Each structure stands twice: as C-alpha cells, then as structure tokens.
Amino acid sequence: MAEMIEAFQTNLVAMSLLAMLVGAFLIYNTMTFSVLRRRTLLATLRIVGITRGALFRLLLLEAALLGLVGTALGLLLGTLTAHYLVQLVTRTINDLYFVLTVTQLLVEPLVLLKGTLVGLGITLLAAVAPALEAAGTVPVSALRRSQLERRVHRGLPWLAALGLAALLAGGLLVQQADYGLSGGFAGLFLIIGGYSLLVPLAVTLLSRAGSRLAQRRGLLTRFALRGIDANLSRTGLAIAALGVAVAATLGVSIMISSFRATVADWLDYTLSGDIYVSARSSQAHSADGTLLPQTRALVAALPEVAETSSGRRVTVSSEHGPVDLLALELASRSHSGFQFVTAPLPDLWQRYRRGELLLISEPYAFHQHLKTGDTLRLHTPHGPLTLPVGGVFYDYGSDRGLITLARPTYARWWDDPAFSTLGVFLQPGAEPATAMAAIRNALGTLDQALQIRSNREIRAQSLDIFDRTFAITRVLRLLAIGVAFVGVFSALMALQLERTREQAVLRATGVTPDQLSLLTLIQTGLMGLYAGVLSLPLGWLMSKVLIEVINRRSFGWSIETRLPAAALPEALLLALSAALLAGLYPAWRMRRVQPALALREE
Prior knowledge:
Layout: H1 2-37, H2 39-47, H3 52-96, H4 109-135, H5 141-154, H6 156-174, H7 180-213, H8 219-230, H9 232-270, E1 275-279, H10 295-300, E2 305-318, E3 321-329, H11 348-353, E4 358-361, H12 362-368, E5 375-380, E6 383-393, E7 402-406, H13 407-414, E8 421-426, H14 432-443, E9 450-454, H15 455-469, H16 471-498, H17 500-508, H18 513-555, H19 567-591, H20 595-599
Parallel strand pairs: 3-7, 4-6
Antiparallel strand pairs: 1-8, 1-9, 2-3, 2-5, 2-8, 4-7, 5-6
Helix pairs in contact: 1-4, 1-7, 1-9, 1-16, 3-4, 6-7, 7-8, 7-9, 7-18, 8-9, 8-18, 9-15, 9-16, 9-18, 9-19, 16-19, 18-19
C-alpha cells in the first residue's frame, strides 16, 4: 500500500513541478516587463547615485514581496482546488483499489511550508536575470538594449553546449534503474531543461532560414522574422515556455493514448470468453463472493454454450508477502487469454493443468525481480508449496501483481473447492444477448445475486475506468498551458514597450495602424509556430521517458508506444492558437501608438 501511494503521489508531484517550471518562465517575463516599464526611472536612479548592488537588492526584494503575495494566493487557490481534485483521486482509488470515503480535507502545515519555499525560491531564481539586467541600467538605455541582444547572440553557442550537456546527463540518468523513480523524474527534468537551452539557437536558425525563404514575400513577414531574432532575449524565453508546455501536453497525450491502446488490446485477448458470470459481493473490489456449486452445471447444459471455465481469486501468503492469486480451471480456448513477456517453459499448459508450475504477471515479476524458470514458495494450510515460474504474462488489471495456479491444485492445497467466476464460451453463431437471457432464466431459480456480463460490457466499463483515472492529469496539463499563455502574453507586452520608437518610425514612414497590428500577429503566429515545431521532438522524448522509465518503475507495466494520428497537428494548433490569442492585446496597443509622442526625446 505504501509503494502504491508513493508512486501515485510522485507522479502527481512531477506534473505539478512541470507546471512550476513553466511558471518560472512566466516570472522571468513578468519581472522583465516590470523593469522595462520603469527603464527611465531606473536610469535616473543610477544617475543620482544608486549603486548597482543596491538596485539589484531592491528589485530582488520587490520580486520576493510579489512572490510572497503570489505564493499566498497560490496556497489559497490550491487548497480550494484540492476540494475538487480530491474527488478525482478518490474516484480513481475506488475504481482500482478499494472503496474510500473522504469526509474532510486535511491540509498539513508541512505541505504549506513546502509550497511557500518552492514559490519563493523559484520566484527569486527567475528574478535574478531581470534584476541583473536592471542593475546594469545606464542613461543611454537604447545602447544597453542592443548590447544585451549582442551578448545574447554571442552566448548562444555556450548556451547550446550547456543544453546538450544537460540532455546527455538526463539521458544517462533515466537509464540508471538503480536510482528508481526519483532518478527517472530528475533525468526527465534535465532533458526538459537542456532542450529549453537549445531553443534560442533553434529560433535564430529558423528565423534566418525563414528570412531567406521570405525574400520575395511581403515586407511585414520579413520584419516579423527578423524581429524575432533581433529580440531573442525576449522571444527565445517566450517560445521556450510555450514549447515546454505544449511538449508536456503532447508527451502525456502520447503516453495516455499508448497506455489506453495497450490496455484495449490486452482486454481484447484477455476476455477470451463471451460471457462472464460472478457472484455479487457485499463489498466493492472484494473477491470473497462464491458461486453455488450447481451454477456451472446449469450453464454448461444450455444449448448455446460450448464450454465453460472457472476461477477463484484470493489473497495468499508467499515468501515475498501477500499476493493476489487467481486459481483457474481453463477451457480449451482460455489459452488465448495469455500473452507472455518472454518465451514460457516447454509444455506449459499440460504442466499448468497438472499443477507443476504457476504463472506470474509482469508487474509481480518486476517488483519481486522474478523471471521465467525461477521458483516461488507459497505458504498453504498444508505447508510450503514451491513451484517454478512457467511464464510471465502481460497484465494491466493490477499494479501490485498477480499469480495464477490451476484451480484443482489450489483447491487441494488450500482446502477451498469454491469458485467465484465462470467464463462462458458460446457455440459458433450463438448471439450473446440470447445466451445471456438463457443464462438468467437457468440461474433464476438459485437463491443468489449474480452479475452476468458480456465481454463487450466489461471492456467498455474497464476503458471508462481508465479514462477517469487520468482525469486529474488532464487538469494539470491545462494548468501548464495556462501558465505558458500568460508567459507569451507578458513577453509580447515587453516587446511592445521596447519597440515603441521602432513602431513610431514605421508609422512615420507610412505604415498604417492595421499593418502594425498585422505585423504583431504575424510575429506572434511565427512564435507559436516555432514553439509548436520545437515542442514535437521534446514531446516525443518526454513520452518515451514517461512510458519506458517512469511508468515502468512506478507500476512494472510494459506499454507499446503509439503516436495518435491527431497528436502532432493538435500540438501545432495548440501552440499557434495560444500565441495568437496572447498577441491580440499587444496588436491592439500597436494601433494606438502616437508617432510624435514616441519619437520625442527628453
């Protein structure tokens, strides 16, 4: 139980930290915007004797105060949001594990302290660069701006080298299984951070390539392309923030789609029977309900039924602790319900029926470090039972693991001849609906509450539970996108302030207000397109780490990576839409530029 809770919580914390990582870009852009609005004031303070160190400390103090207010609001909103999120988590636990009722929301002081430290820490860390830039303010601010961009372009090779080093370190870290789940997440964040450092260089290369291709296009398009590269200190971070947020959405979408497709395939071959009959238990997720002994004979006698299988699911004791055991008496078609990770032992099913071996699920093999051919000791009322592992089969019904044993062998060693489920295999051409009605009529005389369901009904219900399980993940993805949207908006507002004189010159030379607005929207659209394109490789990398490292170390499942057909166009559309929406207000502001006022010198 502790391992299940830890894995569940670690995944949620990682998604939250991803939103916080995107938030760091937002804080940087916000502080930059704040500095730009007061550029004249800061230059004046430097003239009258305020030192660079004093100005730096003043701005960090300002950032800390803003961060404190933001953190307090975040803790309040987080607590309010928890009332909704706890329902999603509770529903997932009810679907997968056991019935849980939450009567009150417990807010631990330690959680609030951690939130405060993370909020203030990231705020101060993100505010360092804008504070340093402001501390270097000189009266000739126009020169400072061009010098800053030159320094940024000169530093691109070093930034890219650092990004490649982080990517390499992250790749090596995720491959080290000894570091566990925390090491996997640390490697994932190194990959995200390293890729983000490569974005400015990629933006420069894309803009310059676009400028060459747009030689015969409109003048506004060339202005927009060159403006992105010329203001890389602003546009690079905005594109990186949006790209990381979209990549996170893409990566998680690929992971969920791959997981869902894998589970759907597993349900298709696992539910080899046409109809399943089970006893209704008084408690949800309980396997203690048993069918009456005559149930199987009554069902098998029906003309629509070709054969039946029976099963009994219980919890038994093993050398590794408690484990779920599924005792099966197989039908001839039941074999197709098992697919194995590696080749099983020879003469598997004959030896299985004789009780000479047992089968284990992939999660159980992963958690207990077992493989085909190893032995497993079970504790029974008649003493220890040691059997070889005949094969490791795929199973996505439980992250805790499962073993299966022939039911006659189980009945003999545990003195339990009962069975709790009945698999019904129909004659060729028999209709499931007709057969289910016949089964209900045949078992209607029994004094027992029964559950009779088709394999299609079980499959649909299982996939519905799967979709509800990932509802909270979708909420966290939306938070990351929302934060990135605000980041792009603040970056564009900063650009609008810095380029007021440039816009005034364009207006004075004949550019109309509509053309200025169009210039902003073209530039914004290009930034969104860059973010979307650059998010695709990172999203794919994130999905591979989530599927092959994070999910594997959390639950022990193997998932086949599948790329949904709509995933890549959706990522591009999401980035483009977010950028264009963020650019609407700056475009409107550009229309209101007064050339005479903007060109006036003090």
